[in-house]
Design the sequence.
């Protein structure tokens, strides 16, 4: 099987990495079903990279239908140790303008239809999630963003809503009062599952609009979002190129041992089927 050390998840507007070389397409099936699309594995910046379109090529999968578990499990099967996720968000702050990039370090969950753990069916695990983003990886993304000339906001809270509808004005105003910085529909489940899979995770939140709280701006429309995403996609690719040159081969963070002491179930009582199913993730602890 093809192997890669870095995974890139492309959201709305970022459907490919044009600079990939030595490209192979890899179709995977996982215990959790089929991922959003074929993994595009290639060489970029001297590293083997696996790219996945979160919503599928042609943008045919709504946020609630994304098979997050299959997507992250597939990256694990490919040997990925770091994931950089990119996606569209709305700004909840005046000073975070459209076309800015935010590097969130916290999440707030307002979803309700999405499986977001590999555990269950006879095995229980509880990962620490107070710090949901890998600080080491986010630091490298910050440096790469600055080198690329992006207007970057370091840190912030990402509100993850169910969608696919955008917020009402009442919801938008309440979310602002809670102190969130950006609002999106996808990145939280990726962060949770990457942590369970012991993969470093960081996200680039690409700001497209002011949501609907901003009285002087037009109500957010998909046309406006897509126009700004096209502008952001070029910058995002430049950041990824710079990032890959900065990443050291070895990780120094704690993500690679995130599951240590987190599996609560008596090992003798874990069903053999679940041991086989989750072997790529939990095998070293059994």
Sequence:
């Amino acid at each position: 099987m093809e192997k890669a050390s870095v995974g890139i998840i492309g959201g709305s507007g970022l459907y490919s990495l044009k600079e990939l070389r030595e490209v192979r397409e890899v179709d995977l099936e996982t215990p959790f079903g089929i991922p959003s699309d074929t993994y595009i594995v290639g060489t970029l910046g001297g590293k083997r990279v696996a790219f996945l379109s979160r919503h599928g090529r042609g943008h045919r999968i709504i946020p609630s239908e994304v098979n997050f578990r299959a997507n992250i499990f597939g990256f694990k099967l490919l040997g990925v140790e770091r994931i950089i996720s990119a996606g569209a968000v709305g700004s909840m702050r005046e000073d975070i303008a459209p076309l800015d990039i935010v590097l969130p370090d916290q999440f707030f969950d307002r979803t309700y239809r999405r499986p977001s753990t590999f555990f269950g069916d006879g095995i229980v695990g509880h990962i620490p999630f107070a710090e949901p983003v890998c600080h080491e990886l986010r630091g490298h993304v910050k440096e790469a963003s600055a080198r690329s000339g992006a207007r970057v906001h370091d840190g912030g809270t990402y509100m993850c809503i169910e969608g696919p509808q955008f917020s009402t004005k009442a919801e938008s105003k309440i979310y602002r009062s809670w102190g969130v910085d950006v609002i999106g529909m996808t990145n939280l489940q990726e962060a949770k599952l990457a942590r369970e899979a012991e993969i470093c995770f960081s996200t680039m939140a690409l700001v497209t609009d002011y949501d609907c709280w901003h009285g002087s701006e037009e109500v957010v429309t998909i046309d406006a979002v897509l126009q700004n995403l096209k502008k952001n996609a070029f910058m995002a690719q430049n950041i990824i190129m710079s990032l890959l040159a900065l990443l050291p081969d070895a990780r120094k963070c704690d993500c690679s041992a995130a599951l240590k002491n987190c599996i609560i179930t008596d090992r003798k009582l874990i069903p053999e089927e679940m041991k086989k199913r989750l072997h790529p993730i939990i095998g070293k602890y059994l």
